[in-house]
Each structure stands twice: as C-alpha cells, then as structure tokens.
Amino acid sequence: MMKVGEICTVQTIYCKRDETVQGAALLMRKYHVGDVVVVDQPNGEKMPVGIVTDRDIVVGVIALGLDPASLLVGDIMSDDLLTAAEEDDVYETIERMRFRGIRRVPVVNSGGGLTGIVSVDDLLEFLAEEMGELSRISSHQQSHEKRARQ
What we know:
CBS-domain; 6 strands; elongated; 19% strand
C-alpha cells in the first residue's frame, strides 16, 4: 500500500486565520503556489482549520470588488476541510477527493498537525509512474518471449 505521506509535498505554505487576504495572495505569489493552508497553533503544532485558494480570492473577493487588504483569511477560507493522514492509502484518498470534488488536501500526522499537502498534480504524477511500471512489465514479457523462442 502506498501511503499519502510518501507522495505529498512537505513544503506547505500556511498562514493563520487573522492574515489578510492580500497577505495570503502575496504568500502564493512568493512561493508560486495556488493555495495556502490556514492553521491554528494551540500548542505550537500547526493544526489545519481551512484552506484558501487563488480561485477563492478571485471569485470571492476580487470579482465582488471587496478589499483584500481589509478582509481576513478566516472570513473567506473553506472550513469544511478534508484532510488525509500520512498513513492513509493513496487510492482511498483519491476516492475521497473525487467524492468531494477537492483538488488539494492537507496531510496531517497522528496528532493532527500539518505535515504536507497532496494535490491532484501529485496524484497524477504518482499514477503516471505506476502506469510506466505496468508498461515495463509488457515490454519485459515480450523480450522474455523472444528469447524463449530462439
């Protein structure tokens, strides 16, 4: 079984819910990412409580003519948050993401602390590698058969 923790991106960009929307957008620009995980830090551990995407900012703030410098991330974040544990099976996580229509999922440790994020792109890369391995089985079998016939 392949675990989510083995394929997730560990460099996760995060902020607290009292960050401005503009501040979150600047983080996305600086780190070239399309999302920021929103965390609370009750005991120093980053506990994911929401996520804000570039699309949330465009559709929910800019398109409505709202001021991103005066709105807080906590006001616009998606807080119906789906997370995946590091130990979760990749295929089960794909199914949960598909069911909810979610493209990015924060990954947490056994204590619920943020350890990474897994995106559709990460999963596509993983599945492409799996398909490559399968295709090598066929070519290996064909060369084995050719040797056996000689």
